[in-house]
Amino acid sequence: MVLVEIIELMARDIASKFNPLKVIVFGSWARGEAGPDSDVDLLVILNCARDKKRDMQVAIRKELRKFKVPKDIVVATPEDIEDYKDAWWTVYHPAMQEGKVLYEQ
Predict the structure, then answer these.
(1) Residue among 103, 95, 88, 49 nearest 73 (CA)
(2) pTM for the full model?
(3) Please, are residues 11 and 42 in contact by the beta-carbon 8 Å criterion?
(4) Which positions ≥6 away from 18 have C-beta within 8 Å?
(5) What is the Cα 53 distance to its own chain's centre?
(6) What is the rounded average pLDDT for all residues in the chain?
(7) What is the structure's pLDDT at 4?
(8) Which of 18, 30, 54, 68 has the highest local Cβ count within 10 Å?
(9) Are 8 and 101 in contact (CB under 8 A)?
(10) Strand, coil or helix: what is 104?
(11) DSSP-derived secondary structure letter, 40
(12) pLDDT at position 46, please?
């Protein structure tokens, strides 16, 4: 299976199990610059309490263990995105600027 297909499967898995608002791939895969050692950066936007983001990140990582590719999962709330999407020093900024939406409610 090609890595692009695996990324799409990961997004579908997240969508079916965690009901996110959006799943966005960002970083080198979104820019078309991914190489053989590139990880997959996914931003998952969920309606959850800010203090539950870490728990959700752990649950998503567990679910995606079956996909044997290096990955970085970032969980954010809609409020995080609204508050920090223009803050260049956060991960949200590049994710929202260059990211590709894989799933959206």
Answers:
(1) 95
(2) 0.92
(3) yes
(4) 44, 46, 56, 59, 60, 63
(5) 13
(6) 94
(7) 86
(8) 30
(9) no
(10) strand
(11) E
(12) 97
Q: Measured between alpha carbons, how far is 89 from 67 in angstroms, rounded to an integer?
A: 30
- What 3-state DSSP class applies to 85? coil
State both tokens at 97: 């600027």
pLDDT higher at 55 or 4: 55
The first and second tokens of residue 98, run together, are 């260059």
- How much of the chain is helix, strand and coil, in % rounded to 5? 50, 20, 30
Q: State the pLDDT confidence band at 1, using cuts at 50, 70 and 90.
A: low
Q: Is 68 exposed, middle or buried (0-12, 13-18, 19+ CB in 10 A)?
A: exposed
Query: Domain map of the chain by residue range?
Result: 3-104
- pLDDT tens digits for 43-88? 999 999 989 999 999 999 999 999 999 999 999 999 999 999 889 9
Phi, psi at 61, each rounded to 5°: -60, -40
